[in-house]
Each structure stands twice: as C-alpha cells, then as structure tokens.
Amino acid sequence: MTAQQPVVELVEAGFAYEDGPPVIEGVNFGVPKGRSLALLGHNGSGKTTLLRLLSGGLRCVTGLLRLDGEPVAYGRTGLTRLRTSVQLVVQDPDDQLFAASVGQDVSFGPMNLGLPEAEVRARVEEALEALGIAALRDRPTHLLSYGQRKRAAIAGAVAMRPRVLILDEPTAGLDPHGQEQLLEVLGGLRAAGTTVVMATHDVGLALRWADDAAVLTPDGLCTGPAAELLGRPELLDAARLRMPWSITVTALLRAQGLLGEGEPGPRTPEELGRWPVARG
Ligand SMILES: Nc1ncnc2c1ncn2[C@@H]1O[C@H](COP(=O)(O)OP(=O)(O)OP(=O)(O)O)[C@@H](O)[C@H]1O
C-alpha cells in the first residue's frame, strides 16, 4: 500500500446486523488512489458487509468512515458526496438494474445528480463504450444475458465517474472468456485513473489482477501488496483460502532449480505451456 492519504477509509470499524454477532471488529481499511485492490475471504467472512460499509450503504456501529480524511456525514448531502466518489456494484445485477432499457438504467445515477442532459448523455455513452455494450443501449434489461446484465450494472456505476469503483464478486457466474473480458475492462478503468476494488474468493485471479490485497481472517483484516500477501500459506490457511496455482508451480520450478530466485514464474497454464522448461 502507498503512504498517501486514502480516498476512502474505515477506521477501527465495527459492525453487527441486528441481533447478530459482530461481523466486522476493529477493522482499519484504507483505499488509496489509483490502485487495484482485491478483498478476499471465505463465504460469510464479511466481504459484502465491508464493501457496504465502505460505500455508505451500511453504517459502522463503532469506528468511522472517512472520505478524503474527513468523517462521512450520513445525511443526504454527505451520502451524495460519498457516492460521487465511491460506487458499489453489487453481486447480483438483478438487484441493481431496474429501468426498462440499458441506456435508461445507466443514465439513472447521473440524472439523479441533477446534471444537464448533455452531460448525462455524454456520461452514458462513455460508460457504455468502456464496458463494450454501446450496441445494447436500447435493449430491454430483462432480455440481456447474465454477463450483459453484469456489464450494464457496472456501466451504471461507471457513469457516476467515481474515483473508487467497488465490485462485489464481479466475475462470479461468468465463463472464463467473460471473466477475461471483464478483467480487461477493469484494467482499462484502472489505467484511466479509477481505483478498482474487487471482492473475490479466487486467490489466483486476485494475484494476477490486483496491486494490493486485503484478506479477512478470524483475527481481522490483513493488507499488503498482493504478490507478497497471497504467497503466505499460513495467512491463506487462516482465511480458509486456497493457495494459488501459480505460486505452487513457481515454488516447484524453483525447488527443481528451473527458475532463479526473484524471477517471476508462470501466472497461467498458458504461460506454463510456453515456458522454456516445458519445451526442454
Ligand atoms: N442482512 C443481513 N442480516 C443479518 N445477517 C447478515 C446479513 N447479511 C449478511 N449477514 C451475515 O453477516 C456475515 C457476513 O456476511 P457477508 O455477506 O458480508 O459475507 P461475504 O464474505 O460477502 O460472504 P459470501 O462470500 O458468501 O458472499 C454472515 O454471517 C452473514 O450471515
């Protein structure tokens, strides 16, 4: 993580659902500008809860949320300010899409900000282009495939031009090609300066995609550079996550003397297939 001030930050945050046990306790989680960050944890570990706390949909019971270093005020003005900076895309696109057509759905957020019509139109076009779904502008949302609905839901958030785009399990339910396409789209947004935060169970995907990682364990949230954090077997064990394939293969290649210390190993089966060792 960088030392710069986070855009948005949970400080000593605690949360429990009504009559339930604490889900989040004493969590410090800052999201710096311009990074890609993967939030990992097993089912029920609290990823969705943490993302909702970060984006203002839930409010900390203890601790606080800061935007640009200032505590977030949960009134209308404060939440609008937060949402122009931080947008959450929920796991199930059907919980997010409700307008009749894709274009109408994507325009909803910017229109709600009271922006002039031309500005709304420009933002909708930009978001549809970024997600590669400009051709679906007039398509009724209920006629879209699951992958298309996912993209339309993300476009709705992108049209708000947030500094931080948060996605809850964005690759869940997508086929391998759809996953790769989505990662490309997210790479494009990140290259354009948007911070992208993604919750996932997939350690391999996080390792390939993210600069930084945050891992939820029973002892709390552990954060750091993805390549370092996700190579720690004891941490992944504690989080009940599986060691990524690429790390196991890289360790094997090193143990066999086929890869030098510090040299990067193959990140995908395709890269292993092209590995000089594999041919030799
Ligand atoms: N609306 C709710 N009311 C009560 N308890 C809830 C609610 N939503 C989540 N929980 C509980 O809070 C805990 C954390 O859930 P959360 O959805 O944040 O986990 P998660 O890591 O996102 O899980 P998954 O990977 O399965 O999506 C779980 O024990 C869950 O049962």
UniProtKB/TrEMBL annotation:
Per its UniProt entry, which superkingdom is the organism in? Answer: Bacteria
Q: Example GO molecular function term?
A: ATP binding
Record keyword ATP-binding present: yes
Renumbered to this chain, region (Disordered) spans 260-280
Which InterPro entries has this protein been placed in?
AAA+_ATPase, ABC_transporter-like_ATP-bd, ABC_transporter-like_CS, ABC_transpr_CbiO/EcfA_su, Co_trans_ATP-bd, ECF_ABC_transporter_ATP-bd, P-loop_NTPase
Enumerate the spans annotated as ABC transporter domain: 8-243
The answer on whether this UniProt entry bears the keyword Secreted reads no
Q: Transmembrane residues, as ranges? A: none
Q: Which UniProt keywords apply?
A: ATP-binding, Cell membrane, Membrane, Nucleotide-binding, Translocase, Transport
Q: How does it sit in the membrane?
A: Peripheral membrane protein
Q: Where does it reside?
A: Cell membrane
Kindly give the SUPFAM superfamilies that the UniProt entry links to this protein: P-loop containing nucleoside triphosphate hydrolases (SSF52540)
Q: What role does it play?
A: Part of an ABC transporter complex. Responsible for energy coupling to the transport system.
- Please give the PANTHER family that the UniProt record associates with this protein: ENERGY-COUPLING FACTOR TRANSPORTER ATP-BINDING PROTEIN ECFA1, HEAVY METAL TRANSPORTER
Similarity remark = Belongs to the ABC transporter superfamily.
Please give the name of this protein.
Answer: ABC transporter ATP-binding protein
Write down the species: Streptomyces sannanensis
Q: What is the lineage of its organism?
A: Bacteria, Bacillati, Actinomycetota, Actinomycetes, Kitasatosporales
